[in-house]
C-alpha cells in the first residue's frame, strides 16, 4: 500500500510539472534577454514564489471542500454565482488562449522536425491530442508521467550538445526599471493552478501527500526554467529567438534541432493534455454538460481561432499570463480567504494564518501591478 501511495505521489508531481512546463519556457529566454539576465532571475524568483504560494492556497481550498470541483466550482461555493460566472469566463478564456499557444507552438516545432508546413503539423497534433483528452484522466495522467520523463531527458540532451559553446559572460544585465518585462511570460509559465484539483483526484486516499506534491511539482519547473534560460542565453547571446528551440537549432545544426524541438514538443503536449482535460471538467462538473459536448466546446474554439489568424506566439503568452491569469488570481485569493472560514472538511495541511493573510495581500498587489503594466500604452 505504501508503495502504491508513493507512486501516486510521483504521478501527481508529474501531472503538475507537465501542466506548468509548457510553451512559456520557450519564451522566457527572449524576455530575459530584453530585461537583462539578472533582472529576469529576480522576476523569476518573485513570480515563482508567488505561484507556489498560490498552489498551496488552492490545494488547501480543495482539501477543505467535499466533492469534485474545478476552480470555477470552488469559487461558486465560496463567493456565489456571480463570482463563479466571472471567473468561469476568465478561466475559459485563459484555457483557450493557452491551448491556442500550444497549437501554434507544436506546429512550429513539428514543422522544424519534419519540414512540413506549420499549419498542417499543428493540425495533426491538435487532432491526435484532442482524442487523448477525450478519454479522460486515466489515460492523461499516464501519458503525462511518460512525457514528463522524456521532456527532462531532452533537457539534459540540450545541455550536453551545447556545453562547449557556453559563454558565462553572456549572463549579464541588471535593469530594475525593466523588471516587469518578463512578468506576463513568467506568470504564464509558472501558473498551472488548474491542475491542483486533478492532483487531489490522483491522491485520493493519500491526501496527506498533497503538500509535498504541490511543493515539488512547483519547485522543479522553476529550477528547470532557470537552467534552461541560463543555457540558452549563455550559448546564444544576443541571438536569442522568440521561440528558443528554433534559435538553438539554427545555431547548432540538426542534432540540436532534433533534441531541442523534441523537448519543446513534450513540454507543450503535456500541458495541452492537462489543460484540455481541466476545461472539459469545468463544462462537465460545474455546468453539467455531457462529455461529448464538453469535449467539442473545448477543442473547437482554439481550432477556429487558429484558422481565423490568431497565431502570435509571444503576444498570446504575455496577454494570457498577465491579464487573464492576474484577474483569475485575485478571485482565487479571495476564495481562499473565505474557504478558511467556511470550509466543511478538515484539510490535511493548512497555511499559518499570518502567511495566508500576508501572502494573499502580496499576491493581489503583484497581480494588480502586473495588470497595470500589461495594459499600459
From TrEMBL:
Primary location class: membrane
UniProt entry keywords in alphabetical sequence: Cell inner membrane, Cell membrane, Membrane, Transmembrane, Transmembrane helix, Transport
Membrane topology, as annotated: Multi-pass membrane protein
Keyword Transport: yes
PANTHER family tied to this protein: OS07G0662800 PROTEIN, TRYPTOPHAN OR TYROSINE TRANSPORTER PROTEIN
Keyword check for Isomerase: no
Protein's name according to its UniProt entry: Amino acid transporter transmembrane domain-containing protein
TM region(s), chain numbering: 7-31, 37-58, 86-105, 117-137, 144-162, 174-192, 213-236, 256-280, 292-310, 316-339, 351-375
Alphabetized InterPro entries for the sequence: Amino_acid_transport_2
Gene3D superfamilies assigned to the protein according to its UniProt record, in alphabetical order: Amino acid/polyamine transporter I
Any single biological process term in GO: amino acid transmembrane transport
Lineage, highest ranks first: Bacteria, Candidatus Kueneniibacteriota
GO CC field: plasma membrane
Compartments, as annotated in UniProt: Cell inner membrane
Amino acid at each position: 500500500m505504501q508503495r502504491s501511495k508513493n507512486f501516486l505521489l510521483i504521478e501527481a508531481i508529474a501531472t503538475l510539472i507537465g501542466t506548468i512546463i509548457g510553451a512559456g519556457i520557450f519564451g522566457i529566454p527572449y524576455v530575459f534577454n530584453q530585461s537583462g539576465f539578472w533582472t529576469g532571475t529576480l522576476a523569476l524568483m518573485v513570480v515563482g514564489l508567488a505561484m507556489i504560494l498560490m498552489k498551496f492556497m488552492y490545494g488547501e481550498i480543495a482539501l477543505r471542500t467535499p466533492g469534485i470541483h474545478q476552480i470555477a466550482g470552488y469559487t461558486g461555493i465560496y463567493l456565489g454565482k456571480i463570482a463563479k460566472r466571472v471567473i468561469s469566463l476568465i478561466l475559459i478564456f485563459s484555457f483557450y488562449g493557452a491551448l491556442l499557444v500550444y497549437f501554434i507552438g507544436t506546429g512550429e516545432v513539428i514543422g522544424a522536425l519534419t519540414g512540413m508546413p506549420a499549419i498542417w503539423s499543428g493540425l495533426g497534433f491538435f487532432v491526435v491530442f484532442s482524442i487523448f483528452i477525450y478519454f479522460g484522466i486515466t489515460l492523461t495522467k499516464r501519458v503525462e508521467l511518460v512525457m514528463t520523463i522524456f521532456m527532462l531527458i531532452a533537457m539534459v540532451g540540450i545541455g550536453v550538445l551545447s556545453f562547449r559553446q557556453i559563454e558565462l559572460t553572456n549572463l549579464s544585465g541588471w535593469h530594475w526599471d525593466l523588471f516587469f518585462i518578463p512578468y506576463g511570460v513568467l506568470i504564464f509559465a509558472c501558473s498551472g493552478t488548474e491542475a491542483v484539483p486533478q492532483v487531489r483526484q490522483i491522491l485520493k486516499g493519500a491526501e496527506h501527500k498533497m503538500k509535498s506534491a504541490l511543493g515539488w511539482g512547483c519547485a522543479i519547473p522553476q529550477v528547470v526554467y532557470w537552467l534552461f534560460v541560463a543555457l540558452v542565453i549563455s550559448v546564444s547571446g544576443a541571438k536569442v529567438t522568440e521561440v528558443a528551440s528554433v534559435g538553438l537549432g539554427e545555431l547548432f545544426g540538426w542534432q540540436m534541432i532534433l533534441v531541442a524541438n523534441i523537448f519543446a514538443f513534450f513540454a507543450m503536449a503535456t500541458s495541452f493534455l492537462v489543460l484540455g482535460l481541466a476545461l472539459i471538467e469545468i463544462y462537465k462538473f460545474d455546468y453539467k454538460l455531457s462529455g461529448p459536448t464538453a469535449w467539442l466546446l473545448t477543442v473547437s474554439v482554439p481550432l477556429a481561432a487558429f484558422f481565423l489568424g490568431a497565431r502570435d506566439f509571444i503576444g498570446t503568452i504575455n496577454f494570457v499570463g498577465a491579464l487573464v491569469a492576474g484577474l483569475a488570481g485575485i478571485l482565487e485569493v479571495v476564495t481562499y480567504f473565505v474557504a478558511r472560514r467556511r470550509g466543511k472538511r478538515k484539510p490535511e495541511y493548512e497555511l499559518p494564518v499570518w502567511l495566508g493573510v500576508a501572502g494573499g495581500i502580496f499576491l493581489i498587489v503583484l497581480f494588480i501591478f502586473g495588470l497595470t503594466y500589461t495594459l499600459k500604452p
